[in-house]
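User: Fold this; tokens only.

Assistant: Input:
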Amino acid sequence: MMAMAKLLLVLAVAILTISMVESKLKETNNAEEQHQLERVNGQGGQKNGKGSLQSSQCPRQCLRRCSQTRYKKPCLFFCLKCCRACLCVPSGYYGNKEECPCYNNWKTKRGGPRCP
């Protein structure tokens, strides 16, 4: 019976440790994304220099932007993320990213485009 209690205690500590590590990783990733976005905008997180869309307009604009792709789910996910951060979605289904500098310049860690 004592061995069972020790095993449960060790298991509980392991689960707690894992959840703390996951939480810290999420915080780190969010901080890195925010830092990158601030660097791309050159505005330190201010809304100056961003597009003229309102956040509530993002779903409609991203549906339009992603309507021609075979990969709708990831396209919509990243488009919405970019739109909410940049308040801009380029015209058309592909390209035209020069219309939205924030959208165009936001890159992944590997240097690829983050926004579709």
